[in-house]
Amino acid sequence: MTTAALPQQPPERLDMKKILPVFVIILIDLLGLTIIIPLMSLYAASFGANASLIGLLGAVYPAAQFIGAPFLGRLSDRYGRKPILLISQLGTLLGFLLLGLSNSLWMLFLARLIDGISGANLSTAQAVISDSTTEKTRTQGLGLVGAAFGIGFVIGPVIAAVSLAISQNNYHVPAFVAAGFSLLSILLTIFLLQETLDPARNSAVGKRKFTLRAFWAAMNKPLVGVLLAFMFLQQLVFGSFEQLLSLFTLNRLGMNGQSNSVLFVFVGIIIVAVQGYFIGKWSRKFGEIWLIRFGLALLAVGLLLTAFTPRQAPPWYSQQAVTAELSEGRNLAGETPPTQSLQVNLPPDTNKGYLGLGWILVAMIPLSIGGGLLQPSINSLITRSVAADEVGGTLGISAALLSGANAFAPVLGGPLFQSLGAGAPFWIGGVIAAILFALALRLLPRRSAEPTHA
Question: What is the dihedral of CA 196, 199, 204, 207, to 10 degrees?
Answer without folding.
Answer: 80
